């Protein structure tokens, strides 16, 4: 019995350093992590007419610089162009969202900048009238939206961002709307709440 206990003790002493070895990972070194979420308002154009898009976004922040996340947005006012196939009471709604990346410059500065992009998809949906508000038909689009931002550190947990970008939409024409009508310049107001 003493020999068995002695062998186990020797095994524990020699295996200890091997068990304490650093775990192998794809990304090396120590990194600080944070995250945020919040509402977004975008002032933009649809079919060269002013429009407002609202939604939200959130993300994981690595080393106060790189944000990996996602967001979703919808047009606040239904579109009303009609190609004659449906009644004038029918409504077209547009929404989009997807994967988002952002790189932040000087995150600890009171005012700092970032480069942001969304890569995802959207849908233009034909709805019934106000009394019969069900989906009649929809069409899918690819959406790419790069943006340059200025951000203000209001508090440790709260930031406000102003951005200027362009929404690029690719897809087929749908009830009088094509990719040019759905693409447009965006002015973005973002409210971020979280750990930065």
| Strands side by side in the biggest sheet | 1-2-3-4-5-6-7-8
What CATH architecture would you give? Beta Barrel
Reading the helices and strands in chain order gives HEEEEEEEHE
Give the percentage of residues in beta strands: over 45%
User: Into how many domains do the coordinates divide?
Assistant: 1
Descriptive terms for the model:
about 200 residues, elongated, Porin, single chain, about 10% helix, mainly beta
Question: How would you describe this protein?
Answer:
This protein has 196 residues and is mainly β. The protein has a single domain, classed as Porin (Beta Barrel), CATH 2.40.160. The protein has two helices and eight strands. The termini are far apart.
How are the SSEs placed, and which strands pair?
Blueprint: H1 2-19, E1 33-46, E2 49-62, E3 66-75, E4 91-105, E5 111-127, E6 135-155, E7 158-170, H2 179-182, E8 184-195
Short synopsis of the structure:
The chain is mainly beta and 196 residues long. The protein has helices spanning 2-19, 179-182, and strands spanning 33-46, 49-62, 66-75, 91-105, 111-127, 135-155, 158-170, 184-195.
């Amino acid at each position: 019995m003493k020999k068995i206990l002695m062998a186990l003790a020797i095994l524990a002493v020699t295996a200890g350093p091997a068990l304490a070895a650093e775990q192998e990972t794809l990304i090396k070194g120590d990194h600080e992590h944070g995250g945020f979420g919040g509402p977004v308002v975008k002032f933009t154009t649809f079919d060269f007419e002013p429009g407002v898009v609202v939604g939200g976004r959130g993300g994981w922040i690595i080393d106060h610089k790189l944000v990996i996340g996602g967001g979703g947005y919808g047009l606040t006012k239904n579109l009303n162009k009609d190609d004659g196939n449906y009644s004038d009471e029918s409504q077209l709604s547009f929404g989009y969202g997807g994967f988002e990346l952002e790189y932040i410059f000087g995150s600890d500065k009171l005012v700092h900048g970032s480069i942001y992009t969304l890569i995802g998809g959207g849908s233009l949906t034909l709805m019934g009238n106000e009394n019969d508000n069900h989906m009649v038909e929809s069409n899918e689009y690819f959406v790419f939206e790069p943006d340059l931002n200025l951000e203000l550190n209001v508090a440790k947990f709260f930031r406000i961002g102003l951005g200027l970008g362009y929404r690029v939409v690719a897809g087929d024409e749908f009830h009088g709307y094509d990719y040019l009508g759905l693409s447009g310049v965006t002015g973005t107001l973002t409210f971020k709440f979280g750990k930065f």
